[in-house]
């Protein structure tokens, strides 16, 4: 209903259909279902409760799906590469560090692609906070964006965990054994034993700064921005490089 027909004057008569979005017109163009809301006193953008709710949950739902896809591909790549290295799971490795990195890059690229048109394609809390700090993104939307991203990431990782549950049991040595050293790193980032907390923070800060620089490089209107459909491809290469 976003399309507006110029000089289209509807007769103010409600149609017999169940949707008040549709208004009967006296010309053939009305068959397309296009309505000029400015000229229609009886038309509403929110004909029911769901249509009103949809406007508010659209962006968080997009962020949820973006983070879901990111972790589905990323954690899935981690599990495939690392678990298949165990001879009890696979006769030969089915992946390596490169395939794992490709999965994370593809995951973020596809996550941005599915959510960009509805929420801006943040997918990552760091991007949301940085956008609110530096790019004028409304702070009031930050909490719901981050919540949606965290829930999407947890669900994506949960699907991967369910998929590789039996392989994880084999590698860990039982269904009641779960350790960070063996399989914990497949689903989260942990600092190496030799790193201090400051060094671990600095490492993540540098990676996040590189990601944000790449995103803003592609989207800054003063920098000759890439066409919208090309931005996820550019993000793929940025994450792969990181």
UniProtKB/TrEMBL annotation:
Domain of life: Eukaryota
GO CC, any one term: plasma membrane
Transmembrane segments: 144-164, 194-218
Bilayer topology: Multi-pass membrane protein
Cited SUPFAM superfamilies: Aquaporin-like
Keyword annotations from UniProtKB, A to Z: Membrane, Repeat, Transmembrane, Transmembrane helix, Transport
A UniProt-annotated Pfam family: MIP
A GO MF term: water channel activity
Cellular location(s): Membrane
Catalytic function, reaction form: H2O(in) = H2O(out)
Database matches in InterPro entries: Aquaporin-like, MIP, MIP/Aquaporin, MIP_CS
PANTHER family according to UniProt: AQUAPORIN OR AQUAGLYCEROPORIN RELATED, AQUAPORIN-9
UniProt similarity note: Belongs to the MIP/aquaporin (TC 1.A.8) family.
Protein name: Aquaporin
């Amino acid at each position: 209903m976003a399309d507006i027909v110029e000089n289209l004057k509807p007769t103010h008569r409600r149609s017999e259909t169940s949707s008040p979005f549709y208004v009967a017109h006296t010309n053939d163009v009305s068959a397309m279902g296009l309505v000029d809301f400015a000229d229609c006193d009886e038309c509403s953008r929110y004909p029911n409760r769901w249509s009103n709710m949809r406007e508010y949950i659209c962006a968080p739902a997009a962020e949820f799906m973006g983070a879901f896809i990111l972790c589905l591909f990323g954690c899935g790549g981690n599990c495939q590469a690392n678990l298949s290295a165990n001879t009890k799971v696979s006769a030969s490795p089915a992946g390596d560090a490169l395939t794992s990195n490709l999965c994370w890059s593809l995951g973020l690229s596809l996550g941005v692609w599915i959510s960009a048109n509805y929420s801006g394609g943040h997918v990552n809390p760091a991007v949301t906070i940085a956008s609110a700090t530096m790019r004028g993104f409304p702070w009031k939307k930050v909490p719901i964006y981050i919540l949606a991203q965290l829930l999407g990431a947890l669900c994506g990782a949960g699907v991967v965990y369910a998929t590789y549950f039996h392989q994880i049991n084999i590698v860990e040595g039982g269904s009641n054994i779960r350790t960070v050293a063996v399989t914990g790193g497949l689903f989260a980032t942990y600092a190496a034993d030799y790193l201090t907390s400051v060094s671990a923070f600095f490492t993540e800060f540098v990676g996040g700064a590189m990601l944000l620089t790449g995103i803003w490089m592609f989207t800054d209107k003063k920098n000759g921005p890439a066409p919208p459909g090309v931005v996820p491809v550019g993000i793929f290469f940025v994450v792969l490089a990181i």
